[in-house]
Q: What sequence folds into this?
């Protein structure tokens, strides 16, 4: 371990000067105190954790809705929830989990970890970070609030027209859904821009493309996918909003006027299927990041894993029509989509084989996060294989829109994303809190989660093969679906208990966990090269790297970056390919305007639910707020340091 | 042959040639994926447990010989994966080709219209007056190819009889087609598979596959206009039917009731299910349904129309006479 | 960047005010939309009362002889301007073939329902009577054929055609060919026109007295629903 990366550890320097520098960094990177300071924070760690926390809040909401749905389906002809409420619940469950939990929580993990893993002080556009968080929070709060005001959308998370169109979905339930989805995807886009720019321009010197940690690679691919997928759904929801809004009443999806309901499905699934990989790839990154710590070797097949991630990113955009095999699509086209859907198995298979090779040749330590990784194999592989079945047009025509698909997607998303995510929460918990997660209660919660999950969702495969269709609020006893549904409901109870215990354990460990020390899992990546929790400026002297596993392989005398100003928020910009130092970038500081802009955007979108005039009033206001946001500041530190000053303080760059 | 999950609504219990071909693909895929799963999980368990908590070595990948061996193993596994995927792809394409070749030139044409939330079936005949319209109950001749012409009256529905064939969407603004040949006599269940609103859950229908002879008899019976009321009670019932809300939505051939908003009731008493396949057709259920449909299927289009008890009794008497 | 500058204090206060105001607006919107979005599939008050027995005869143009009887039965149920009521009314308008005469509201054989002219009044109870009792020159009487709560739903939809109902509850358009300007675009115009429009030239119809049919000379009354 390189002591050079310990911010407080002086090498052969004047200790006093070191302390003064640290104090200056503390001062420079600190945000304003108080509530308002909290609101306008631009610290990637604070915002990242806030993303994660808020997303889990929506996860809890959506999970409660799921539990209520399971209670309704526990026995035939149950009358706990009527169709109206059930439809709102399943719509909000899907919407909440996909748009307000899965994507934001993965982005939160990325925003927290990526800058640390690549050894920089903050993301490139700190104010955009703040804007992303608040648009996400506003959209989620407004949409979930709709549920309490009888405005919960009730046409499914996919909102197929014409059912979601003006002719068949009365009131403003779907308007609320459409406008809030547009809003939340703006947040996802912001986060994706942050990750892409930060990774390509702010890596630690020496971290060339082939030394980027696998986790960071998967987040880059995810972010690029977001950049292409989210505009598609934003477009679709905007068109839907225009179709529905009085005085605007466009005809995009009205077949009588030359519009087409099929257009909606194409736009939606062009986003919808990549969405699955947007959720799965970060989880894939968690596994690649955690495995070295628990197998004591670096992950086997680095180039193969990187390339398969990128391949997934491309192929993910070529499979969307397998959600539409029952619609009137040309047969030849369906054949191509079948081939693409089977082909995308190949990169995933490469991942799995490489990880198995890593486990097989490493020295396995069965700690809590490792259990979640192993459960990933047991659960996700089922989901992946049923996914192969769904790629076949013939099989798809039978099991599409049945509980078989419900089982499949939960095996993929819970097994493939949530279990690794829970493992990742345990793994990086010491980074956030400085304390270890409790192992014993953690294992109990893990067992409950694993058993509860399989008891809930495995029977659904069978229910689907018994003909039980999705999105039904009840069924008659003659169908014979009763016993398996009862089993699934019991399983859901166990699963819920497992989740509660898991978070109780984390909450308990936050106070009472063992002190973690600097690198509790003996991991290999840079986020463990600083304090836990990290200071606001991340690294006293940002590190440089000489290998893929810097904490394992780099010698103790690896250089660090010096010469960055301690009086201004500066980061070192490096070249995209080789990460050679290029110039110093003066990051923007806190500003109230990103928050105000997010607030105005939320207000405008919310207003559009009711009146089209909202755009007329809202857009100019947003323009003003943006102008104030981007107003050039005359801060104390110039962007380009004069040569003389540079010489005095030491040029930015690498010194040993 | 042993059937897994047999039942009247099971894709794994085929009663028609299309479902049978699809079932073969299913078992091909199932067999391959099951083996793959067992192998992967076995390897994972062995790998995880074998050298558990062994003393920490230096970097094991610094053994280049073993790393090379690993590359070969992973490449081989990948090769097997690709081959298996190709087998499955060819299996799927072959099945679809054979499904396509099952589409004959001269099928029995049945027009299917999806309504929120019930199914309407119209048997086409060269002579238009011989067309037969029914709802909720579909009769098919065994062994004869049938072409369903699918259309939607409102939103997207999906026509699915698991025992006979895969599903096909009913798309507003487009016609879709589905070919089916039922081979095994029996009763099966169909259900709407695309979410279509409040009562999506109860949008079911009964499929009865008859021997050709019996099917022809049934069709002939359906062609006849409704039975005229015989008893005084039935006549009173008809008066209630024609004089209140019923007539605004339903058709009874041979009477002035000719509206197409709700199901055709000309031979309602001959059906096994009412309420779009949600209630067995018994007198008690019929009474329950007519008196208060919103309690049984909230949100359904049939209105509440409480009748005085004697009128309700008469109406039931009349409806039950419509065989 | 300092947190203590007066500029920041002002901003903080402004921010708090804006937040509180926004919250208040949200609560108001939420509470009002709760009522508008209510979906009651089972009108209890109505379900309790058995309807009258069957009426003889087929539908025919104009008020029927039983109109008086229907009127004496009063107007059971209540008029509701909820999203669900308007939606159901729209479905009924199409399925009960109102469109056969009134087109999609633009009129044809029947009166134009999208303009601001109301021959028999635009108050909900007046439209209710028009549907239940029928009117001269063709409008049949639907009394006893359509349950009262569905008549009220039709009333709500008919009113929305000429923009008398808030766009918060009415939908923007149908999934049909657009034969007319979208229903809501006449809202403002109709608001302006309802008052100044002189009473219908009822001289033409005055001579024809049919029991139970009242020509409401004051079709301009703009005050609230019954």
A:
């Amino acid at each position: 371990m390189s002591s050079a990366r310990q911010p407080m550890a002086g090498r052969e320097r004047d200790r006093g000067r070191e302390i003064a520098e640290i104090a200056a960094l503390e001062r420079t990177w600190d945000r304003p105190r108080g509530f308002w300071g909290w609101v306008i924070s631009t610290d990637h760690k604070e915002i990242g954790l806030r993303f994660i926390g808020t997303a889990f809040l929506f996860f809890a909401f959506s999970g409660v809705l799921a539990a209520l749905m399971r209670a309704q389906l526990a026995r035939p002809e149950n009358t706990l929830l009527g169709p109206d409420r059930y439809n709102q619940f399943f719509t909000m469950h899907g919407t909440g989990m996909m748009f307000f939990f899965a994507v934001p929580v993965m982005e939160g993990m990325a925003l927290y970890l990526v800058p640390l893993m690549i050894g920089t002080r903050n993301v490139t556009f700190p104010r955009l970070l703040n804007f992303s968080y608040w648009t996400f929070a506003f959209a989620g709060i407004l949409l979930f609030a709709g549920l309490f005001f009888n405005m919960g959308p009730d046409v499914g998370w996919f909102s197929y027209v014409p059912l979601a169109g003006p002719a068949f979905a009365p009131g403003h339930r779907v308007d609320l859904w459409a406008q809030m989805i547009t809003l939340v995807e703006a947040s996802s886009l912001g986060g994706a821009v942050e990750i892409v720019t930060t990774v390509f321009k702010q890596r630690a010197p020496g971290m060339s493309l082939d030394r980027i940690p696998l986790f960071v690679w998967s987040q880059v691919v995810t972010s690029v996918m977001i950049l292409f997928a989210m505009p598609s759904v934003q477009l679709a929801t905007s068109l839907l909003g225009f179709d529905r809004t009085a005085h605007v009443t466009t005809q995009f999806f009205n077949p009588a006027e030359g519009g087409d309901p099929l257009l909606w499905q194409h736009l939606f699934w062009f986003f919808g299927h990549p969405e699955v990989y947007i959720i799965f790839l970060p989880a894939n990154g968690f596994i690649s990041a955690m495995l070295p710590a628990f197998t004591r070797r670096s992950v086997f097949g680095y180039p193969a894993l990187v390339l398969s991630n990128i391949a997934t990113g491309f192929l993910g955009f070529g499979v969307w029509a397998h959600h539409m095999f029952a619609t009137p699509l040309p047969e030849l086209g369906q054949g191509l989509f079948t081939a693409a859907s089977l082909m995308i198995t190949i990169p995933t298979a490469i991942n799995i084989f490489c990880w198995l090779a890593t486990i097989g040749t490493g020295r396995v330590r069965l700690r809590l996060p490792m259990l979640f990784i192993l459960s990933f194999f047991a659960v996700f592989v089922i989901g992946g294989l049923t996914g192969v079945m769904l790629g076949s047009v013939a099989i798809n025509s039978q099991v599409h829109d049945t509980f078989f698909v419900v089982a499949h997607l939960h095996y993929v998303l819970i097994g493939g994303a949530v279990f690794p995510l829970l493992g990742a929460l345990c793994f990086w918990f010491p980074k956030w809190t400085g304390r270890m997660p409790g192992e014993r209660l953690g294992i109990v919660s893990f067992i409950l989660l694993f058993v509860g999950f399989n008891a809930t969702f495995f029977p659904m495969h069978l229910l689907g093969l018994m003909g039980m269709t999705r999105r039904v609020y009840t069924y008659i006893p003659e169908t014979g679906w009763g016993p398996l549904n009862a089993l699934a409901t019991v399983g859901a109870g166990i699963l819920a208990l497992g989740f509660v215990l898991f978070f109780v354990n984390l909450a308990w460990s936050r106070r009472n966990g063992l002190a973690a020390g600097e690198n509790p899992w003996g991991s290999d990546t840079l986020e463990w090269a600083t304090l836990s929790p990290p200071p606001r400026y991340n690294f006293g002297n940002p590190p440089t790297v000489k290998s893929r596993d810097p904490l394992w392989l780099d010698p103790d005398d690896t250089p660090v970056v010096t010469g960055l100003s301690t009086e201004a928020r500066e980061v070192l910009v490096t070249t995209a390919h080789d990460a050679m130092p290029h110039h110093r970038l003066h990051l923007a500081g806190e500003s109230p305007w990103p928050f105000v802009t997010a607030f105005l955007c939320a207000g405008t979108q919310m207003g559009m639910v009711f009146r089209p005039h909202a755009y007329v009033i809202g857009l100019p206001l947003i323009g003003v707020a943006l102008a104030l946001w981007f107003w050039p500041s005359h801060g104390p530190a110039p962007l380009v340091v004069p040569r003389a000053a540079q010489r005095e303080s030491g040029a930015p760059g690498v010194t040993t | 042959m042993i059937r897994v999950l047999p039942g009247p609504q099971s894709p794994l219990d085929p009663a028609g040639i299309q479902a049978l071909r699809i079932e073969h693909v299913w078992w091909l895929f199932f067999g391959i994926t099951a083996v793959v799963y067992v192998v992967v999980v076995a390897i994972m368990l062995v790998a995880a447990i074998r050298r558990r908590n062994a003393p920490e070595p230096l970097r094991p990948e610094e053994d280049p010989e073993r790393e090379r061996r690993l590359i070969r193993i992973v490449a081989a596994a990948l090769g097997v994966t690709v081959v298996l995927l190709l087998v499955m792809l060819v299996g799927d394409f072959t099945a679809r080709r054979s499904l396509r070749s099952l589409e004959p030139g001269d099928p029995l044409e049945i027009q299917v219209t999806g309504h929120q939330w019930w199914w309407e079936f119209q048997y086409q005949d060269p002579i238009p007056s011989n067309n037969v319209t029914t709802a909720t109950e579909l009769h098919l001749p065994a062994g004869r190819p049938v072409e369903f012409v699918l259309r939607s009256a409102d939103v997207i529905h999906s026509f699915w009889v698991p025992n006979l064939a895969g599903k096909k969407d009913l798309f507003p603004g487009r016609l879709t087609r589905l070919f089916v040949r039922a081979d095994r006599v029996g009763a099966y269940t169909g259900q709407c598979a695309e979410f279509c609103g409040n009562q999506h859950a109860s949008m079911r229908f009964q499929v009865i596959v008859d021997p050709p002879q019996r099917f022809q008899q049934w069709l002939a019976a359906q062609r006849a206009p409704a039975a005229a009321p015989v008893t005084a009670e039935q006549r009173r019932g008809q008066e209630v039917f024609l004089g209140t809300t019923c007539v605004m939505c339903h058709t009874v051939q041979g009477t002035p009731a000719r509206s197409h908003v709700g199901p055709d009731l000309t031979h309602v008493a001959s059906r096994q299910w009412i309420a779009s396949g949600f209630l067995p057709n018994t007198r008690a259920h019929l009474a329950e349904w007519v008196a208060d449909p919103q309690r049984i299927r909230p949100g359904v289009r049939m209105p509440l129309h409480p009748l005085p008890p004697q009128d309700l009794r008469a109406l039931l008497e009349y409806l039950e006479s419509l065989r | 960047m300092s947190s203590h500058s007066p500029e920041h204090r002002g901003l903080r206060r402004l921010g708090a005010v804006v937040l509180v105001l926004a919250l208040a607006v949200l609560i108001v919107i939420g509470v009002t939309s709760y009522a508008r979005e209510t979906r009651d599939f089972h009108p209890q008050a109505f379900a309790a009362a058995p309807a009258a027995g069957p009426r003889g005869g087929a539908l025919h143009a104009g008020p029927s002889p039983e109109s008086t009887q229907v009127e004496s039965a009063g107007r059971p149920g209540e008029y509701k301007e909820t999203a669900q009521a308007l939606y159901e009314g729209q479905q009924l308008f199409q399925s009960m073939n109102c469109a056969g005469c009134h087109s999609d509201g633009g009129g044809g054989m029947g009166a134009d329902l999208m303009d601001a002219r109301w021959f028999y009044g635009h108050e909900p109870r007046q439209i209710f009577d028009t549907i239940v009792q029928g009117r001269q020159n063709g409008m049949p009487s639907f009394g006893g054929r359509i349950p009262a709560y569905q008549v009220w739903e039709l009333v709500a939809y008919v009113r929305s055609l000429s923009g008398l109902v808030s766009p918060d509850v009415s939908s923007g358009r149908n999934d049909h060919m657009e034969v007319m300007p979208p229903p809501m675009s006449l809202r403002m115009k109709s608001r302006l026109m309802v008052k100044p429009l002189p009473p219908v030239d009822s001289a033409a119809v005055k001579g024809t007295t049919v029991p139970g049919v009242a020509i409401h000379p004051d079709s301009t009354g703009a005050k609230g629903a019954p």
